[in-house]
């Protein structure tokens, strides 16, 4: 491994030295050559050398066995090789995002996220700061990052081939593709949205869903032997072991899936007015599995309802109507059976609220922290306190007649009767200070 690293550093160093050693010609060569002609010759030679170097870099550096194109060459900084981040990472299947405002480059692949802060030089992997030998930098409007660091974080190998002086980043890779279907009347029919996952032992390598034609393709899988898992909510899961991926080859794995035989049952019942046998029509009956809505229906003119073909399990049935209080009842569905879930509903209670202001006697100055209590006879219905402006609001008060009590340690307690008939009842009370 040390030998490979030395060879990589040597190769890039030689190229870098080649660029840095371009001849700088004098302003006058003593033989009557004009300055303009001399500058043109210097520029032409420089551009030719750079072009040759770029061609060499493009022919000598691969990502997963595929040559990549550099518009700017790699550089050597403090003994480390820095590479253009976009050319390398995109070849490795990563996404690159540039935050111009904060000067931050983010590289994302799968569950790995790397952030390079170009201003501070700090580097974060999945939100945790890590140390790095050479900080990232911007050269010729391109962001450069250390080759070794980004390769190790992404779990990629860097290999040098002394036979052809090539550097290959990443494993030898191949592709897996196939067709997922079911048998209908002795014909294969495509299944869309099947999740296809590649596993190496217990580690998930890559995943993809089948398209509308039942086709899938998993690209750039490192060579080796894997397990494929095919899953869909409506079908039995299928696995294929010992799927071999070879370098630069496409492995075809087709599967046929069978539908899940679901055990189901029915729910029926009647919704009545509380304390009577009178059915309530047009009640919405909604079935929930946890917070997920499953099915719904409405009651008929007799208050009866039926919901068919619910998978076995325990559900929450919600009964709602504009004129009645909403009711929730639980029921357990059993295979091949019809269970009965009845519900009783109470008429919706009309509610309003009381609001107003408590002031000092003969002024408009509000009094804060006055206790406001609402009584129905001797029963306390609701209470609150005034705010810094002396204002208060009591909500959810059913329509009716009440007694309001206003009390404060520094003022005389005041009681008055009030009727709540509309959405809002406004009561303004002046209070007299205690002597």
Whole-Å distance between the termini?
Answer: 94 Å
Shape: flat
* CATH architecture designation of the largest domain: 2-Layer Sandwich
Biggest pleated-sheet summary: 5 strands, antiparallel
- Count all strands and give the number: 37
CATH-level-4 superfamily name of the largest domain: Copper amine oxidase-like, N-terminal domain
Report mean pLDDT, rounded to a whole number: 81
**Poorly predicted sequence stretches spanning 5 or more consecutive residues:** 1-54
**Tally of distinct domains:** 4
CATH topology of the largest domain: Copper Amine Oxidase, Chain A, domain 1
Q: Which value, in Å, is the CA radius of gyration? A: 38 Å
**CATH class membership of the largest domain:** Alpha Beta
Structure commentary:
The protein is mainly beta. It folds into 4 domains: 168 residues, Copper Amine Oxidase, Chain A, domain 1, CATH 3.30.457; 84 residues, Immunoglobulins (Immunoglobulin-like), CATH 2.60.40.10; 82 residues, Immunoglobulins (Immunoglobulin-like), CATH 2.60.40.10; 81 residues, Immunoglobulin-like (Sandwich). Helices cover 14% and strands 52% of the residues. The N terminus is likely disordered.
Properties at a glance:
435 residues; mainly beta; Copper Amine Oxidase, Chain A, domain 1; Immunoglobulin-like; 4 domains; 5-stranded antiparallel sheet; 5-stranded mixed sheet; 4 helices; 37 strands; 14% helix; disordered N terminus
């Amino acid at each position: 491994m040390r030998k490979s690293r030395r060879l990589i550093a040597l190769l890039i160093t030689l190229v870098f030295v080649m660029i840095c050693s371009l001849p700088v010609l004098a302003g006058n060569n003593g033989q009557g050559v004009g300055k303009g002609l001399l500058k043109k010759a210097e520029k032409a030679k420089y551009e030719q050398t750079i072009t040759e170097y770029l061609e060499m870099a493009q022919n000598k550096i691969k990502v997963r066995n595929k040559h990549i194109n550099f518009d700017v060459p790699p550089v050597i900084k403090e003994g480390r090789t820095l590479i253009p981040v976009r050319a390398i990472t995109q070849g490795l299947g990563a996404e690159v995002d540039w935050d111009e405002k904060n000067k931050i480059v983010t590289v994302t692949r799968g569950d790995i996220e790397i952030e390079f802060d170009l201003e501070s030089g700090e580097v974060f992997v999945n939100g945790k700061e890590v140390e790095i030998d050479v900080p990232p930098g911007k050269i010729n409007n391109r962001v450069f990052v250390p080759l070794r660091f980004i390769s190790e974080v992404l779990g990629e190998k860097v290999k040098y081939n002394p036979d052809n002086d090539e550097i290959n980043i990443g494993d030898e890779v191949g592709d897996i593709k196939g067709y997922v279907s079911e048998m209908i009347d002795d014909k294969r029919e495509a299944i869309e949205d099947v999740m296809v996952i590649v596993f190496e032992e217990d580690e998930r390598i890559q995943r993809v869903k089948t398209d509308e034609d039942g086709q899938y393709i998993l690209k750039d899988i490192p060579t080796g032997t894997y397990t494929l898992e095919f899953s869909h909510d409506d079908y039995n899961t299928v696995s294929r072991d010992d799927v071999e991926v070879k370098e630069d080859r496409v492995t075809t794995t087709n599967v046929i899936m069978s539908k899940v035989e679901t055990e189901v049952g029915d729910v029926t019942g009647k919704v009545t007015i509380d304390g009577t046998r009178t059915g309530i029509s047009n009640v919405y009956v909604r079935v929930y599995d946890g917070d997920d809505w499953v099915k719904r229906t409405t009651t008929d003119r007799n208050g009866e309802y039926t919901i068919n073909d619910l998978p076995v399990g325990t559900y929450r049935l919600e009964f709602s109507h504009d004129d009645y209080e909403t009711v929730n009842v639980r029921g357990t569905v059993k295979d091949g059976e019809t269970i009965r879930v009845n519900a009783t509903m109470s008429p919706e209670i009309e509610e309003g609220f009381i609001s107003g202001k408590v002031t000092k006697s003969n002024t408009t100055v509000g009094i804060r922290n006055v206790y406001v209590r609402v009584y129905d006879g001797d029963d306390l219905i609701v209470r609150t306190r005034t705010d810094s402006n002396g204002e208060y609001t009591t909500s959810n008060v059913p329509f009716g007649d009440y007694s309001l009590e206003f009390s404060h340690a520094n003022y005389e307690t005041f009681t008055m009767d009030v009727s709540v008939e509309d959405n809002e009842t406004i009561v303004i009370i002046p209070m007299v200070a205690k002597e």
